[in-house]
Amino acid sequence: MHPTRRRLVGALGGGVALAGVSPLLAADLLATPRQSKGPFYPLELPLDQDNDLVHVSGRSGVARGEILDVAGTLLDERGAPLRGVRIEIWQVNAYGRYHHPHDGQDKPWDPDFQGFGRTLTDDQGRYRFRTIRPVAYPGRAPHIHFALSDRRFATFYTQMYIAGAPENAGDFLLSRIDRRDARDSLIVDLVPATTEGARLQGRFDIVLGRTVLSREAG
Q: Assign residue 197 a region: left if phi > 0, alpha if psi is -120 to 50, beta otherwise?
């Protein structure tokens, strides 16, 4: 860990709740790097848009892949929680294909994987998703896309990567981040889940910098 940054820590709690995060000095919080939106944000949002991507409304199956709980806290650089912010995620299925008409890969669809989800941060800035462990596909390391939207700022896009993935070193978007501590802030350790129904869990805290929060909403 870079000596100038203190990583925010906390465990997944029961249900949606997460352990609280103690306020830190502004100098302790490194702003999360912005990343590109990418070409596979849904053209048409699915009818099922909740924060559980491994179950699709009207179907009894479960998504293929390792079930993963991703949770964290959204903060500003002073450590204050950002409440009521909409967070969206999207990613490939367990075969490495997006649920998007422009993904022309010859890989299977997974009808039991939602592919896209959204939620709102709670009063303490916390969020949670249940999804699958992302997999690599040609040219990209395993990652999950994030979009944060609120009337207080323009939509902020970033991506979460997986610690230990061999593709990280060659990922062109991750490699563009010059500062190692900033790059490391997008890479999340996965550990055995403590929540029922998931195999793995990871914590991805997001810090919005002053330059993001000072912009007019788009």
A: left
CA 218 – CA 216 distance, rounded (Å)? 6
Separation between Cα atoms, residue 31 and residue 152, nearest integer Å: 17
Q: Work out the pLDDT band at 215, boundaries 50, 70, 90.
A: low
pLDDT at 1 exceeding the cut of 90: no
Q: Which one-letter DSSP state was computed for residue 140? A: B
Q: What tens digit of pLDDT does each residue of 104-163 get?
A: 899 999 999 999 999 999 999 999 999 999 999 999 999 999 999 999 899 999 999 999
Q: Which amino acid is at 213?
A: L
Helices (H) and strands (E) in the chain, counts: 3, 10
Geometric angle at alpha carbon 158, from 155 and 159, rounded to 5°: 145
CB atoms within 10 A of CB 215: 12
